[in-house]
Please model this.
Amino acid sequence: MEIKNERWSSLEEVAEYLGVNKDTVRNWIKKQDIPACKIGKLWKFKLSEIDEWVKSGKSAKN
Model:
């Protein structure tokens, strides 16, 4: 099993990365559509998982 040392990205960083509003990312989280992990009170994301999510076409459903 390969372990990657990819850092976690914030909601703000993911919104900027995807070119969408932070509220859009929050809506995707509520729909349990976007791959996200809640750590304490903060939502965190792996950009590699976000890239796969976009490539899969799931982001286009919204």
User: Anything to note?
Assistant: The first strand starts at residue 9 and ends at 10. DSSP finds three helices and three strands in the chain.
